[in-house]
Design brief:
The complex is a heterodimer of chains A (307) and B (236). Chain A is an alpha/beta fold. Helices cover 39% and strands 13% of the residues of chain A. Chain A has one domain (2-303). Chain A has a five-stranded parallel β-sheet, sandwiched between helices. Chain A has a three-stranded antiparallel β-sheet with strand order 7-6-8, with helices on one face. In chain A, helix 3 crosses helix 4 (101-121), helix 3 (58-69) packs parallel to helix 5 (166-183) and helix 5 crosses helix 6. Chain B has one domain (2-233): Rossmann fold. The chains are: A alpha/beta (307), B alpha/beta (236).
Chain lengths: 307, 236
């Protein structure tokens, strides 16, 4: 069974667990020969099935599907940082930016082809929803990070905050799935919600309230899509980590990151559910357990306004 | 010129090529070979200004291949060639035609060379000598193919390696002769025919590699490599 993974930073844990467990995890945009695992991660390789960077929202997933699967044109916007160029739709993919426009566009073309290949060849695509809050251009396109955090300049005339609601998320998920299944009619999808709480909110509420709203809406939308589509299922990673039954022990000391133990617990249930044995590697046996997950929200929090 | 040639099993091709005819073409060159199979040369260490090993087997291999020297004394040579001691060079060459960004390519190249014994040996050698150090990567894996294909990616790999890695060690990476390359990133299969194990005084010295061997090259390849290298080293 070929499995593709996309989504928020928690989805990177899913990718790694699948690789370690020996699944046929689709790496449709592999790193170059010689590149170390650490550097591969820093350049956005082997995090997801193509080099999209984090896809936090259903709307961003729809954008990638429209660009890669439906031939929609990607906005021409590029961010300039001195002599370096940043791709606004995956601003952390090249730690120091691209050298020139041709290089950036070539890399983007490569990722669009790889995204399409991953959808076309996967038997199962796992998508982890992370956020409802996002920043958009007045022309409608969405950014994974607020302009001005990992590149670009915030312009109040051009950029605005959106906290996505249930109908919009439902619509974006359904449109994304329709586009994917048009390319691959046999594709099955597994939706989950990241248990990682918001680091900050751009809305008026306290971040705890904002987190509850965000996760509740995402959870409800994922459940509704799964209930209405036989090819879609919901996997309760969010509940496993955040349920009071867990007594908070799956959260790290910063009360936000999910511990390795939590990730392993979630993935063990996942593997058990699909009948995979013997499960993931024993605790502590993972050579890359210490690898940093690239979490855009932390970047946003570092430069943004905390609640 | 007293030339010190250090390497793993791949120097068997150079030794064979030297003895098969290159020797007569370059009477001014006096090579001494220091070899050990596999990753044995990772056990080299600097001791008293000499490159040697705390492993008796490695010292024995060095002595056998060099004709009696259990360590490499830089005072006995005029230049050095460190050869082989790396893997999958063809994959690195292919990186250059695969659309990766310059930053990614640079990171991959640095990571690759940092992990090789070739660079490890050169670093240790550089600790004890300021004399010229040349390097030759392990041959591109052999394949059936067409000669004359563009070797642009091979050239880009060499240029980038020299600029980013070897120049910093005041060393130079020498490319594989173009006439041995097919498909732009492989060695012509004919050069992998009849390759033999490095003679280190063991029971299977000079025993031919198994049929289907594609990583080790024969004496003809070694002769061409040396001829190309030595011609560049001492023009005229």
């Amino acid at each position: 069974m070929a499995i593709a993974t996309y989504g928020s930073c928690f989805a990177q844990h899913v990718s790694r667990a699948l690789i370690r467990a020996g699944f046929n995890w689709l790496d449709c945009e592999p790193p170059p020969a010689g590149l170390s695992l650490d550097h591969a991660g820093a350049f956005g390789y082997r995090q997801f099935s193509s080099r999209t960077g984090n896809i936090h929202t259903a709307a961003m997933l729809r954008q990638w599907c429209e660009w890669a699967l439906a031939g929609s044109e990607i906005p021409a916007e590029i961010w300039y940082e001195g002599a370096r160029l940043i791709d606004p739709f995956r601003p952390r993919i090249e730690p120091d930016g691209f050298g020139d426009r041709a290089e950036l566009l070539a890399a983007r073309t490569s990722t669009l082809a790889a995204f399409r290949a991953s959808v076309a060849t996967a038997d199962l695509l796992i998508f982890t929803l992370g956020l409802t809050e996002c920043w958009r251009h007045r022309d409608g396109h969405e950014y994974p990070l607020c302009p001005g955090t990992a590149g670009g300049r915030f312009d109040a005339e051009l950029h605005h905050f959106v906290n996505q609601d249930y109908p919009a998320i439902l619509d974006d998920l359904n449109r994304s799935i329709a586009l994917m299944q048009r390319v691959n009619p046999g594709l099955r999808l597994l939706l989950s919600v990241s248990p990682v709480p918001l680091a900050a909110t751009a809305g008026p509420d306290h971040v705890v309230v904002a987190t509850t709203y965000s996760k509740s809406v995402l959870r409800a939308a994922a459940g509704a899509v799964a209930a209405a589509n036989a090819a879609v299922d919901y996997f309760p990673s969010y509940e496993m980590i955040t349920s009071p039954v867990g007594q908070g022990r799956f959260f790290a000391a910063n009360q936000r990151d999910v511990t390795d133990q939590g990730v392993q617990f979630v993935m063990q249930q996942f593997f058990r559910a699909i009948g995979h044995q013997p499960g993931i590697a024993a605790r502590g046996a993972d050579p890359d357990a210490a690898d940093a997950v690239i979490c855009d929200e932390e970047m946003q929090a570092a430069f943004g306004q905390s609640a | 010129m007293r030339l010190c040639i250090i390497g793993n099993s791949h120097i068997a091709a150079l030794k064979g090529g030297w003895e098969a005819g290159v020797k007569a073409e370059f009477p001014g060159i006096r090579p001494t070979f220091f070899g050990a199979r596999g990753g044995g040369l990772t056990r080299l260490m600097v001791r008293g200004g000499i490159l040697t090993s705390d492993d008796a087997k490695i010292r024995s291999d060095l002595a056998f291949t060099s004709g009696g020297q259990m360590g490499i004394d830089p005072g006995l040579f005029d230049a050095f060639l460190v050869y082989g001691l790396c893997r999958n060079v063809n994959l690195l060459v292919r990186n250059y035609g695969a659309g990766y960004s310059r930053q990614v390519l640079e990171a991959a190249l640095l990571d690759y060379w940092a992990a090789t014994s070739l660079i490890g040996v050169i670093r240790k050698l550089r600790e004890i000598t300021t004399l010229p150090i040349h390097a030759g990567a392990s041959p591109l894996e052999a394949a059936l193919g067409e000669a004359g294909a563009a070797t642009t990616n091979h050239v880009r790999f060499l240029d980038a390696s020299n600029r980013q890695v070897f120049a910093l060690l005041d060393a130079e990476l020498i490319g594989q002769p173009v006439e041995t390359i097919v498909n732009g990133d492989a060695t012509a299969l004919a050069f992998a025919s009849g390759s033999t194990r490095l003679a280190v005084g063991a029971g299977n010295d000079l025993v031919p590699h198994e049929a289907g061997e594609t990583r080790h090259m024969n004496a003809d390849f070694g002769a061409r490599w040396l001829r190309s290298f030595l011609t560049g080293l001492s023009p005229g």
